What we know:
Layout: H1 2-26, H2 28-35, H3 37-59, H4 62-70, H5 77-101, H6 103-110, H7 114-128, H8 131-139, H9 143-174, H10 179-183, H11 191-215, H12 221-255, H13 258-272, H14 276-295, H15 302-326, H16 328-335, H17 348-364, H18 366-370, H19 374-399, H20 401-426, H21 433-453, H22 458-485
Helix pairs in contact: 1-9, 1-14, 3-7, 3-12, 3-13, 4-5, 4-8, 4-12, 5-7, 5-8, 5-12, 6-7, 7-11, 9-11, 12-13, 12-19, 12-20, 14-15, 14-17, 15-17, 15-21, 15-22, 17-20, 19-20, 21-22
Amino acid sequence: MSIFKKLFKQTFIYGLATVLPRALAIFLVPLYVTVLGKEQYGIYASLMAFLILGNVVLSYGMETAFFRFINKDESKKGIVQSTALTSLTVTTLLFLGISLWVREPLAAFLEFKTEYVTYGLLILALDALVVLPFVWFRANEKPMRYAIVKIFNVIVNLGLNLFFFLVLPGWAETNPDSFWDAIHVEEGNVVYVFIANAIASGITLLILLPLYIKIGFRFNNGIWRQMMKYALPVLVAGIAFSINEAFDKILLKYLLPADIAEAEVGVYAACYKLGVFMTLFGTAFRLGIEPFFFNHSKNENAKLTYATITKYFTVFGSFILLFVIVYIDVFKRILIPESDFWEALIIVPVILLANLCLGIYHNLSVWYKVTDRTRFGAYISVVGAIITLGLNFALIPVMSYRGSAIATLAAYGTMMVLSYILGQKYYAVPYNLKKIGGYLLLSTGFSILSFYVFDGNLIIGTVLLLVFLLLIYFSEKSDLQRILRK
């Protein structure tokens, strides 16, 4: 049970590093929907979707390769770390130089202001330059340092946003022809979001620069080739994942009529934020579990451990799904105070379920990571991306953002099923399908009743939630008591 204790401890800290910054960032959502409006918020959401894809491309799977290769041979740990750092630094600086050179035609092609694209490119480069330092913290089991830097980044970002949107307008008004008046803009104020993000990313890089010195710049061509061979399928999978995660906002921008596109993206992206609770849980768990998978892959009872972890992930995820749906009327008033955005609430249950399927997929994906069959991760993700693109192209012109939500669920659900089927063939893990499927179906069914049948009635929803918790308690009573005693 000490293995689980260590896992839960690291997951809690990584969860803190993930949940707390995003919880702080959540405070920005009410601010954004209030001061930006639907169209400007749509610009923000669609450009950030491009940045998600850019982040994947610029890290090109080196993060996962780093984990794998430092655990393969302890004697080569130093050269693996410095080779990865050198590779990412060189490619990022080349990208930044070339992209800034062509930023004007790029902005025209993407239909964004050049100013927005310029800040977006800077954010991409700065974030890519801190990928390896953050991975180094995780690989060397230093979750507290990881958490502190991550949280500080968001505090800076949050503070700058509050200054630009709440303080600067007053200073500019009371001090005309001053510096504050010169940097204040009334139209297109979404630019402040990108400026704040770029400054926070730059400060984070400065904080992490000592790790560049610690790791050092050395390059071993042979090790780099091996790492790239391992990383490229991960890159393909990452690109496919970014398509699943972000391309719905992009396609909404370009497939809908221009006069409504930005507004539709805005309301969809804002209501999509109500799925953040599942995303936070899944991300925190994945950050803690990925090193754990590699470190314990050679243990005699590894497969049984993986099965138990997946079961309890499903239990907690199913609870989060039902909890958010039951109290969605409360959450919407806190996170999205502008009622103009509520028209897209219908997609929230679908997005929550989709993200739960994605989290289960991440747990199931252990088989191709510990057996060095990462190409299968790419295959599965490509299938998901094809479904995402196909359904979005087919459904957006007919159903707008409702089609995007359906496409997301279809993609993640298919990926989850495919990973299980292939995993049982190459690395059979004794998952308890009866319980995992039962919890998932029960939570989904109760969510449908609460949201669609009883129209969010709090009393009925709370009863359904309590029934779900009681069923889990009696089903898992003996195991839960044993874990709590340990």
